[in-house]
Amino acid sequence: CTGNGICKCRVCECFPNFTGSACDCSLDTFPCMASNGQICNGRGTCECGTCNCTDPKFQGATCEMCQTCVGVCAEHKDCVQCRAFDKGEKKETCSQECMHFNMTRVESRDKLPQPGQPDPLSHCKEKDVDDCWFYFTYSVNSNGEASVHVVE
């Protein structure tokens, strides 16, 4: 019974939290918990302690990896552009669509937050509407508050 139950008359009687003919299926959902607190990132089902991703775009142990999804940088580029430089596709709707993060301006790229801080951090290099590069970081703290640092 794979150490998770007792064999009685050739049948496994599983300990609590285990099931299956050989008690080899854990009912524990903890291994399926994604970083956002959802089981399998809300994109799959937890079967025997393993995620079965039902959304084909997502994979990985907790259905959090998405190779074809738009990255953090591209997703927030337009909002950073309108908040920091008052231009871009969202210039007219900036105050409605782009207030979901705290923004800090920094003088140069070396003043941007660096990896090694406790919050996940993305370093971004994007082109603006004038075909110029601009640089920013995007991070989310443990309270779910987003923070952007952008080079002036």
TrEMBL record:
The keyword Isomerase does not apply. Keywords: Disulfide bond, EGF-like domain, Glycoprotein, Membrane, Repeat, Signal, Transmembrane, Transmembrane helix. Pfam families: EGF_2, Integrin_B_tail. Residues 73-152 form the Integrin beta subunit tail domain. GO terms for biological process: cell adhesion mediated by integrin; cell migration; cell-cell adhesion; integrin-mediated signaling pathway. InterPro entries: EGF_extracell, Integrin_bsu, Integrin_bsu_tail, Integrin_bsu_tail_dom_sf, Integrin_I-EGF_CS. GO terms for molecular function: C-X3-C chemokine binding; collagen binding involved in cell-matrix adhesion; fibronectin binding; integrin binding; laminin binding; protein kinase binding. Gene3D superfamilies: 4.10.1240.30, Laminin. PROSITE patterns: I_EGF_1, I_EGF_2. The keyword Transmembrane applies. One of its GO terms (cellular component) is cell surface. This is ITB1 protein. It comes from Ciccaba nigrolineata. The gene is Itgb1_1.
